[in-house]
Amino acid sequence: MLVYGRNVAERIFKDENLLKKVRKIEIEEKYYSKIKNLLGKLPNNKIKIARNHEIDNLIKDNHQGIIIDMEDYQYTPLDKVLKRGDDKVLILDHILDPHNFGAIIRTAVAAEFNAIIVPNDRQVLVNSTVVKTSVGAVFDIDIVLVTNLNNTIKILKDNGFWIYGTVMNGEDYRNVDYDEKTCLIIGNEEKGISKLVKDSCDFLVTIPISSKIDSLNASVAAGILICEVVRSRK
């Protein structure tokens, strides 16, 4: 997996376990001189000093003078999340925009949510754009990849979680109790949560908005609900 951007790079360089997963770095000389002390014991044969236009040929996005080739992202088994007694998790029901996914990850980490669960089909997975948009926060939260969301919801319920799905015509999200183990479900950008997932929810919640606006961006809706869960527990 290729990742890029200075904030992402510095997050990786400060974590010895992540640094071990680096295969190769292509970096502008002027930036390398600023951060070479962060590279620790990374072998010199893994570092290539490159000109900006050479890096441009690899990544068209704003790479900020550094690209890192590292091992693919490793997802966390659901069992691990359940065994440690987590009490705040997210389910993403087929989010397709990597920018939405990255933004949701960053908010979840900021709010100290424990994990994000995603399906392995019709869902953007962890890629370069997701890592960049999350500003490296993807490495600070467990992301669980599952084959069936409805089966996963059942397992969560069996482990004491209450399931809150987001819809357009549910109960005001501010009037709901989030004191117990909480799983928030954020739906697809166009279709929302699927019917089977909706039918599996304990609560259906809505963010009231002006009639001038049709709906909220998925990452914005997730941010509002995530913050409400944290606020309500204080």
What labels describe this entry?
234 residues; alpha/beta; 60s Ribosomal Protein L30, Chain: A; Alpha/beta knot; 10 helices; 10 strands; elongated
The main β sheet shows up as:
6 strands, parallel
**Distance between the terminal alpha carbons, to the nearest Å?**
39 Å
- The portion of residues forming beta strands comes to 15-25%
Shape: elongated
**CATH superfamily membership of the largest domain, which one?**
SPOUT methyltransferase, trefoil knot domain
Just give the CATH class of the largest domain: Alpha Beta
Radius of gyration: 20 Å
What pattern of helices and strands is seen along the backbone? Answer: EHHEHEHEHEHEHEHEEHEH
Helix content: 25-40%
Number of structurally distinct domains: 2
Q: What structural class do the secondary elements suggest? A: alpha/beta
Quickly give the CATH architecture of the largest domain. Answer: 3-Layer(aba) Sandwich
